[in-house]
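Hi R.,

Here are the chain sequences for the assembly we discussed:
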Amino acid sequence: MKNRMGYLLTGIFFGFVLSRTGASDYNYIYWMFSGVDLKLALLMGTAIVVGAIGMMILKALGNKDIHGQEIEINRKPLNRNTVIGGMLFGVGWAVSGACPGTVLAQIGEGKILGLFTFLGMVFGTYLYALMAEKNPEL
Amino acid sequence: MKYLFVDLWPWWLGGIAIGVLVPLMYYFLNTALGVSTGYGNFVKIIMPASKLRWLNSNPYKDKYNWRFVFILGMIVGGFLSARSSGMPWLSDSMGIFTDTLKWSLVPNILWFFAGGTLLGLGARLANGCTSGHSIHGLATLQKSSLVATVFFLIFGVLTTYWIRVFLFGGA
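And here is the predicted structure of the full complex:
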């Protein structure tokens, strides 16, 4: 596999940043959702704006990657399941105080309960695989 | 150095550091930032012989592909941050939650496992999580990411309200 080192380093950077900003801290998630401290909401907003500007620059430069290949944006479908999945995810986010990215940083930090959030996520993904077996739309 | 490795980063610095990952990952790796799809790799690692159609779909042909490597990297990143800032090596605390409720280990495990299950199932149904939808998807101006993110936030707020009133006793 090409770029294995690139993905590893990007992952290390991402996990490090999530942990250093407090995104992997239960309290900051709780404070964001209860409106006490919107630090993580501001962080996400900044990330979206910075990401959007970066993508505009890439587009202006011809929408090519470093090897000259056309960049293909991963387009996500919009349907009923976007809403249902969004609701379940929102509840899970508040219950566990983590999301699929920050829980990995929690595990690295040595938070034992984060490991169970992770295992729950693997189990939830398996439930999806079971549902997809009976529902060809998924 | 203390500013980056010990103190918590301000929101704008974290936002910039995460935001630049979206164009940088497209430019250097030609892939979309996203984490939750990689959880399928772990399902497949646990049950490699499963015949389930979805587990044998394209993203999971190689269960040790880039998503797996990326996830391992994120765990290492959290570890490095904890070491540099002096967090305990192991902790059974989950901030306000464990401080307020003082449940024993088993109910805590069940609670966080249940939350994880909702996250895992929800992310697959919605086709993405906080990074794939809310950061990458909104930065690439996708309608489905806006819908998903709005529901993530609404249900996060409602659930937290419920937790605060009914579990924490309004604290």
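Residues 43-74 of chain A form one domain. The two ends of chain A are 28 Å apart (CA to CA).

Let me know if anything looks off.

Best,
T.
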